[in-house]
Each structure stands twice: as structure tokens, then as C-alpha cells.
Amino acid sequence: xxxxxxxxxxxxxxxxxxxxxxxxxxxxxxxxxxxxxxxxxxxxxxxxxxxxxxxxxxxxxxxxxxxxxxxxxxxxxxxxxxxxxxxxxxxxxxxxxxxxxxxxxxxxxxxxxxxxxxxxxxxxxxxxxxxxxxxxxxxxxxxxxxxxxxxxxxxxxxxxxxxxxxxxxxxxxxxxxxxxxxxxxxxxxxxxxxxxxxxxxxxxxxxxxxxxxxxxxxxxxxxxxxxxxxxxxxxxxxxxxxxxxxxxxxxxxxxxxxxxxxxxxxxxxxxxxxxxxxxxxxxxxxxxxxxxxxxxxxxxxxxxxxxxxxxxxxxxxxxxxxxxxxxxxxxx
Length: 332
Ligand code: NAI
Description:
Shape: globular
Structural class: alpha/beta
Number of helices: 12
Strand content: 15-25%
Distance between the termini: 49 Å
Helix content: 40-55%
Bound molecules: 1,4-dihydronicotinamide adenine dinucleotide
Oligomer: single chain
């Protein structure tokens, strides 16, 4: 039998946590043959609720679930974990300044970085979901210098999947036949959903470009982009709560593809440490198109970037540069 993989979920008593832990326990994250041990972390005010989630996990009798650690102790939570999904964070409350929210999250991610660095398994893969996701991941990277930067990422797969969904609805095709959209940049409203390289597989088996099939550049350069950028706000308006099941599902997609690999000819979007590819400033956590193999991502190289796209790539990079400066100003 395979050794169980230890998966940490922080903020596990929250909305996304509640949707995510059963997916992990059912094998959505790492496949139907991989046993898992769940480590769930939350803060003391949520301890009782966290324990309730643990009770439900026991009650669900998941065959792949070999153990559950539910704790408010960061060290206990991080010990021996192979995968860390960081969903816990401080939410923006009405009337709060951006700087105050940033400051709270910087201190959370600084502390959790140290705990992961000291106590996680060697080669632990980290996915930051909590907002501001890119900058939280950057802080985590800076304060866990012994974790290779290749192992730290943030979630933009939800935005990627939203873009696939919009194209599939518009063309009335199966979402699984649409591929190679790209989310560039920040997981925020400045992200750039790019369809210039996206294709659809037709019933004949032929692959055609999304631009050609949609044949409406005004829609692709306008409403499509803003719909994807604003989708999170639209969900909040409709549900009075932010996206949870789609975020949990996207987190599973992100980790699964990272660990098990992306299909031949397909790329996905991941927030990763920029090496300067596509003239994106090095040293930001920025969403790029990536392929994954043998547990490692690499940025897809050589895609053409037109003038319209260039501006959008730069705009979201500027926002991330500002966020980085704000985060650093919170440290001093
Ligand atoms: P939630 O408020 O329901 O849950 C957050 C949980 O984190 C709470 O249980 C809270 O007690 C816990 N928490 C707070 N501080 C913590 C700490 N220091 N350590 C451990 N746990 C802590 O929020 P929800 O809806 O589950 O969202 C979680 C985060 O994910 C938010 O920051 C949200 O903005 C972000 N998000 C990101 C998305 C993405 O695509 N990257 C998509 C949707 C949400």
C-alpha cells in the first residue's frame, strides 16, 4: 500500500476549507489510490467549529483518509506535511484600510513561513489561496528561505477555470474541449485573462483558435475580460458569500496538475516566482502559463505578446510591485 501523504489546510474551519477537505479525503487532490492524512489548522475562536469539521470527516468514513489532525497550534499543523494549502488569512472588513489588511496578513504569513520551513517535510509544496494571494505567497517565500522558490505558488487556477467556463458558454462547447487560456499577473481585478493562444477541440477532432471561433474581438477584448476579472464580486453579490466550491475545486486542480503533470499540449495558470520571463519583473509572484512534469512547473516560453496584451501584463505587474512595497512597509 502507498504511504499516506500529509496535506495541510489552514483556515480549515472556513468556507473554502469546508468544501476542500472532503475533496481531498475523496482523492480529488492526488488520485483515487493515494491515501492522505489531513492536517487542519485554524485560530482559537474557530477551534470548536474546526472540531465539528473533524467529526464530520470521521462520520463520512472516507476510505482514503488515514488520519486527521485538527489543531490551533501552527507547529503541530505543519509537522511533516508534504503539501500545504494556505487558505487561512485575515479578511478585509468594512472600513478597513488596505494597509491594515496587508499588515495582518504579512504577520500571519511570516509566522507560518517559519513553521513550514522548520517542520514541514523536505520538498513540501505550498499553495497560497488566501488574499492577497500573490503577495502572501511572496512573504511566505521570503521568510522560508530554505524552501526552494519552485515549491511556493499561489492560486490563479480559479480565474483560469472561470475563463474556460466563459468561452465554453459562449461557444456552446464542452469546457473540457477548451484549453490554453492564460491568466497573467495578480489574482485581483487587474489580472489579464488572455485567449490569444486558446483553442477548442471540435467534434471532428480538429483544433481551432478561440479568436477565430468567437469571431468577436470586441467581446473578447472587453466583456470577456471584465467578466472574468469581476467574477468573484458577482458570486459575492449572488451568494452573499465569496466563491468556495469553485475555489476548493481549483485548488485541487492546481495541486493535482503540479504533482501528477499537465496533459501533453496543455498548459495551466499558476502564480509562481517570476524569473523575468515575458519581461515581468523578477522577484514577484506572478501568474504565468505553466506546464508541469515530474512534480515541477516550468513557464511556457516563446508565446507572442501583442501590444494590447503587453499593456495588460505590465499593468498587473505594476500593481504587484506596489503590493510588494506595501507588504515590506508593514514589516518595518
Ligand atoms: P473564511 O473567512 O470563511 O475562512 C477563513 C478561515 O481562516 C477562518 O476559519 C479563519 O478563522 C481562518 N484563519 C484566520 N486567520 C488564521 C490564521 N492565522 N491561521 C489559520 N487560520 C486562520 O474565508 P474563505 O471564504 O474560506 O476564504 C479564505 C481566503 O481565500 C480568503 O482570503 C479569500 O479572499 C481567499 N480566496 C481566494 C481565492 C483565489 O482564487 N485565490 C478564491 C476565493 C477566496
